[in-house]
Design a protein that fits this description.
With 224 residues, this protein is mainly alpha-helical. The chain is built from twelve helices and no strands.
């Protein structure tokens, strides 16, 4: 199912490296429907180091079975593309260790692991009911972002900005605070490679959600 054009795009514009087949996500989802969940297969696929296999592993992973050791290995090996912001974050948020892993990772000395941590927090606030979230800790994390975002590496800065948007959009008690902090942070820039990815201005994004009347509306799953 590999596509040379998709492979070229991933490798040239999204930091993906060999081995990679360039399989379209839509084609992966056809296989996902047949397999549904398979913990052992997901682990084996991720450990191949093949980008397509690693991404697909996240789609079929049985999140609840994932151990801390599994998640740490996945975060450590998430090198580019959508592995940090999607694959690892989605699976970790669906596991029993999401909050703990996210807080551990955002203090890591490794940029990609830190990005995994903030991306996991984004997924968590998007799916967890507000009464299952530590609102006090989320306030502290918003303040941390305000203080450190502009001095953080590009991939981390992108995820931090996404965290402000996610809290403002999905956590109703903190929506106004996230909006205020987004204004104080101001526009955020990040070099995300030779692609069309842009860093949205958090306050504008949150206001759009507010105008739709969907502040606090959760997603059924972090995976999409």
């Amino acid at each position: 199912m590999g596509s040379p054009s998709v492979k070229r795009m991933l490798m040239a514009n999204h930091g993906v490296k060999e081995p990679c087949f360039g399989v379209k996500i839509g084609d992966m989802k056809k296989i996902q429907k047949r397999i549904k969940k398979d913990y052992e297969l997901a682990l084996a696929l991720y450990d191949t180091g093949n980008y397509d296999a690693m991404y697909f592993a996240g789609l079929i992973a049985d999140d609840i079975q994932m151990t801390k050791k599994d998640l740490r290995r996945w975060a450590s090996n998430a090198y580019g593309g959508a592995l940090c912001g999607a694959t690892v974050a989605w699976v970790t948020a669906g596991s029993n260790h999401g909050w703990e892993m996210a807080l551990e990772w955002i203090d890591s000395p490794k940029e990609r692991v830190v990005a995994c941590g903030w991306a996991t927090l984004i997924s968590l606030v998007a799916v967890k009911p507000d009464d299952e979230l530590d609102v006090t800790e989320l306030k502290r994390l918003l303040q941390r972002v305000q203080k450190t975002i502009h001095d953080s590496p590009d991939t981390v800065r992108y995820q931090m900005n996404g965290f402000v948007i996610a809290v403002g959009s999905f956590v109703k008690p903190l929506s106004e605070l996230a909006l205020t902090i987004g204004e104080k942070i101001g526009p955020v820039t990040a070099d995300l490679g030779n692609n069309d990815c842009r860093v949205p201005f958090a306050p504008d994004y949150i206001r759009k959600v507010k105008d739709r009347g969907t502040i606090g509306k959760k997603r059924k799953s972090a995976k999409c």
